[in-house]
Design brief:
Helices cover 20% and strands 45% of the residues. It is of the alpha+beta class. It has two domains: 5-39 and 142-207, no CATH class; 42-139, Alpha-Beta Plaits, CATH 3.30.70.330. Strands 1, 2, 3, 4, 5, 6 and 7 form a seven-stranded antiparallel sheet that branches. The longest helix is centred in the N-terminal third of the chain and has 13 residues, at 64-76. The two termini are 23 Å apart. The relative contact order is 0.24.
Amino acid sequence: MYEDEEVAQKILSLREHKVDLGGDCAITLEAKLVQLLVPCQVEMDTEVCSRRILVSNLPKKVEEDRLLDKLEIHFAKSKNGGGEVEESDMLHDSGNVVITFTENNIAKGLADKQYHDVEFEKGRKNSVKVTPFLNGEITSFQTRLSACGRTVLLTGIPAVMEQENLQDLLEIHFQKTSNGGGEVDAFLYNPLGQHTLALFEEDCPTEDQSQ
């Protein structure tokens, strides 16, 4: 994967590349476009869950176990508009918490009030936000092929030397501007017959104009 998309496109336009491995040894590789299937349209049916609430705007410095305990204690009390709590779950991707009650008539009242003062530390309360929890079901899911603008697939690599040495030589070759290359952001050589998972976080697919 290159830092500059223009370099990747140049490598693709040259298509075949002769790589000198030293001595009289050279190999010819083919550069191919990398395409991924990405979602282009998702449709969902949603409904408000009658027994769950989503709690957000939570303090960051409180340990997870203590946070969940304090939320359960607060929302289990009838004087706070709550009721018997069945379970509480932390959503680690968002930092929010889902609380499930045993009865159906608790969640709506808490969400209608929206803001609740919860004591996480003695003598210190935080205002948390309560919103309805939505159950969702995907009804339509469509994908399209998208090109990875900065990533190039090199094929036809024979196992002529140790994997690490061959990877170094390939990376050096495709970094040189004289070979049409440029600054490499990430490089991975996967020998034939092996399986490797590569995750390039910053190479966002772009729509393939040929589709």
